[in-house]
Amino acid sequence: MGEVRWERLGDPRADPLVLLHGTPFSSFIWRDIARAMAISRSVYVFDMPGYGSSAMYQGQELSLDALAGVFAELLRHWELTCPDVIAHDSGGAVALGAHVDRGVPYKRLALVDAVSLPPWGSEFFALVAEHTEVFRRLPGPLHRALLREYVATASSPGLHPDVMDALTAPWLSADGQAAFYRQLTQRRADQSYTDRIQDGYATIDLPVLVCWGADDTWVPAARGRELAELIPGAQLHIIETAGHLLPEDRPAELTAALLAFLEDAD
What residue ranges are annotated as transmembrane (predicted)? Predict the structure, then answer.
């Protein structure tokens, strides 16, 4: 899978908390929330293989199943036996799969606009899957414009230009452009994974919070409500005026909801 970039914040003796990002993002989306959580937690963030500052290369295995395996290996490497976990987008599918399919234990789990139930994937996903080689050969300026327009749709109130630059930067080099379309194509093929693991949601026996942006157009809030109903005892928290990129759109409100969940479940 290649080198994985990771970082730990806060007191290493504090209760561990792991943050997972989704597609097509990186641990950058957790920067403010991670710092806030690190006041009282030992916080771990990482860029999944094929994303952010982690390794990207042709032929890289980027399936959700493979990424769940990487996540399980990282927890062993960090010697975390039962951490709190917060996961966004496809990171949600990774966290869910590691738990229900691989038996990885968590203390608590928070799922934020999580890829978890069909149908998922936009029309853009389908178009890329059908014409991957064409998109990989787009001239750089056209790829950049398309990428920025696509990422912009993940936010409801809109992204600050500096945030947009940071979110898109990993995908702008020649290798990054190829990796961007490679991971999108893989995600399009990954619905069979969530189809396979979703029966296991009813077996989850730990505190779970489902957080969603009310204006999410990538994975609508109705999917969050359905997910919360499938997981026994799960709490549901919908945040208004927020899209799919809830950690960017409403970081303070999301942090408050997450802290309340973690403290209430202690």
Answer: none
